[in-house]
Amino acid sequence: MAKTGLAKKREIIRHKANNYTELYSNSAELRATFLDFQISFGKILDATPEKLEIENQFAIIMSPQQTKQLMRVLVDNVAKYEKQHGTIPISPAQKAIEPT
Hints:
Largest sheet: 3 strands, antiparallel
Number of helices: 2
Helix content: 25-40%
Low-confidence stretches: none
Distance between the termini: 57 Å
Mean pLDDT: 89
Strand order of the largest sheet: 1-2-3
């Protein structure tokens, strides 16, 4: 009998939960405590020099370990995207927004 080994690719089957939702977000805010990280995602409703109005739509709370793993996945995938499509530009207006 031939060995299949770990080199054989495993089929991945994904299912969407009944309450699965996709939302667009152009705003993210990060909060951290000793125990966890919370990322709130929202949509910018109005942006003027005087104010920035954001509707927060949902939040994800993760352990520091899971947050670090997410960071690694994001950094890796942005690098792959930029290698294929070119540098993602950040506008001066986006650079002026304080990270939260």
